Amino acid sequence: MNRGPQFRELHVTKLALLLAAAIFICLAAAPLTRAQDKPLASFKLDCRTYSVSSDGRVACAVFRQLKFEHYTIERDNIWMLTSNGKSKLIVDGEKLVKSPLPFSFSIQRVAFSPDGHRLTVQMQIDQVTDAEGNTHQSRLVDLMTDEGKEIPVAGTKTSVIEDAIQANWLADPDSVAYLVRDANSELLYNVGLVHPSVGAGSVIFKGHFFTAVVWDAPRNAAVAIERDEALSGPIKLVRLDLLHGTEETLATLDGYIGQLALSPNGDKVAYFRDGDALEIRSLANPSSAVTVNCAYGTVVWGADGQRILLKRGPEKQLGDLVWVSIPGGNLTPILHDLIYHSFAVSPDAHYIAVTEPGNNKISLYPLP
Question: CATH for 265-368, among 3.30.1300.10, 2.60.40.1220, 3.20.20.80, 2.120.10.60?
């Protein structure tokens, strides 16, 4: 069929109108998309580990090497970052510890107290012990204010908890809970408690062993996976009252391979039963479980308790971030669907900090 000039002109006009409408829609939608994906603040810092407070501050441990005689030692710094783009050095690693011998420390973990005014700083210590260069390795947790001032433990000359890991201040202002690796197993831990104004702490729940513990700091409590010392008995999900030293068994689990996450209001817990099954239990009815099929990864609850943020893959490897709906298991990518090295979420799940691979940059976003 021979179509004349008027038809061709009309056809071109329609195409032009459709193209203009599409461009208009894209331009109208673009500012919203950019606004949602634009970070509140970004910092060029080599953050090895970090924590986010409920008011949007980030305590960031930054790698630092120094020369000490003919040795190269590590003395990490701590910076406090804010959502309005300000940064402040609160711990100068070079000045934190004075020693006549070569002495390195790397910061493994930083955590805020529930009120955001105190920190626990977990360190790995490497100290040269003789002229041949032999070293002794140890672990400790240092107690500090959010200004970097050390908080002494009464009856000691330091502000540290020896051999402790994963320590957290509780809502009780003079209580710190921590874990100590069991002497007979690399997989089991004991729970300890210290009141800095009173003196050195000690293990509580003696005779009980745990493979995973998540602190419920606002309620001076914890939820844990308990095993017997031989790892042959039942796998128990338990709730611990840390100030009174009492334990409640919530459920006996069919399986557990890793992760343990508590919702912000403390009413739900999630963990991986196996490599592709995330199990969720309400603490009000812990005998009943909801199972969501998804790949193994690091999990953190969202603010509403209806979805879980998942970084897929092993914890120390790169992975993308997705929301997992509960109980549907639908996956929704966030933050441009990019790959990230690590992430941290504030206790109320209103902020998220992420580090991208290869660029030494940490960015803070609102978490809707």
Answer: 2.120.10.60
